[in-house]
Amino acid sequence: GTPLVPTNHMAGHLYSAFADDSQKIKFPVLSVVVSGGHTMLIVMKDFYTYEVIGETVDDAAGEAFDKVARMLKLPYPGGPEISKLAMKGKIDIGFPRPMIHENNFKFSFSGLKTAVLYHMDKLSRPITSQQKADIAMSFENAVVDVITTKALRAAKNYKCKTISLSGGVAANKKLREIMKQHCDRSGIAFTLPSFELCTDNAGMIAIAAYFKLRSGYIPIPARKLKADPNWEL
Fold first, then answer.
1. Separation between Cα atoms, residue 194 and residue 233, nearest integer Å
2. C-alpha–C-alpha distance, residues 85 and 181, integer Å
3. Where are the alpha helices (DSSP H) in the chain?
4. Residue 188 in contact with residue 161, Cβ under 8 Å?
5. Could you write out the DSSP letters of every residue in 61-81?
6. 3-state secondary structure (DSSP) of residue 157
7. How far is it, in rounded angstroms, from Cα 68 to Cα 85?
8. Pairwise CA distance, residues 153 & 171, whole Å
9. Which of 17, 44, 213, 215 has the greatest number of CB atoms lying within 10 Å of its CB?
């Protein structure tokens, strides 16, 4: 009979960026949610009114990180391993930036993943540790470039005063740094969660439930609820 607040997993990621100083957030907010299964741009008019304006059409950024890490024979999860290896990179291979110039807010990382595979196929074996580091750095640069470029374009288009970054890939140090640099240059406020709140965690679900309760939601008994694995944000 304990009442529950049904909470969307991606809402957890969305609201994790507002764990601290939520009173200082200036709206509209362009929320960039980047995880293993999703890459989304969401315009928030306030904490309770938001609209998804762009998603990935194939692989999400986090999924691409994991798949490229597997190609490089790096441990799982691949994102942190690629970032660590990328710090040793010296030469940017110049991988493609899929859909970066298209006049929409959709993402595609499948082609980038394929470009990495084709590049590796051309290398003589065994692939050296420096070549792997260059691949990791070049791949990370491409992903970060696409996400930040599209996010800034969307923020400008919707006249957003703040950009928030959240989700598992928001733990990527390069993405955090480059996004902040772009926001500072554009005069846009920037907020993001602590590293602990980026990956899947109970805290982000509690934060999302908190905002849902603040919107006037009345919890209902658990026996009346059914889990929905296809619940869209």
1. 22
2. 22
3. 9-16, 61-71, 78-86, 110-122, 129-157, 173-186, 202-214
4. yes
5. HHHHHHHHHHHTTPPSSHHHH
6. helix
7. 12
8. 22
9. 17
Query: How many residues in total does the chain contain?
Result: 233
User: How far is it, in rounded angstroms, from Cα 70 to Cα 62?
Assistant: 13
Residue whose tokens read 């989304």: 40
Structure tokens that stand for 156 in this block: 């400008």
Maximum Cα–Cα distance for the chain, whole Å?
Answer: 64
Which two three-digit tokens encode residue 208?
């999302």
Report the distance separating Cα 199 and Cα 194, nearest Å. Answer: 10
Tokens 């008019």 appear where? Answer: 45
Strands 162-166 and 49-55: unpaired
Residue 41's φ and ψ, nearest 5 degrees, are -115, 130
What is the residue whose two structure tokens read 């733990």?
Answer: 171
Residue with tokens 């050296």: 128
Q: Of 169, 210, 215, which Cα lies nearest the Cα of 193?
A: 169
Question: pLDDT in tens for each of the 233 residues of the chain?
Answer: 788 999 999 999 999 999 987 778 999 999 999 988 899 999 999 999 999 999 999 999 999 999 999 999 999 888 899 999 999 999 999 999 999 999 899 999 999 999 999 999 999 999 999 999 999 999 999 999 999 999 999 999 999 999 999 999 999 999 999 999 999 999 999 999 999 999 999 999 999 999 999 999 999 888 888 899 989 88
Residue position matching structure tokens 């595979």: 117
Tokens representing 186 are 């554009």
Rounded CA separation 34/137 (Å):
19
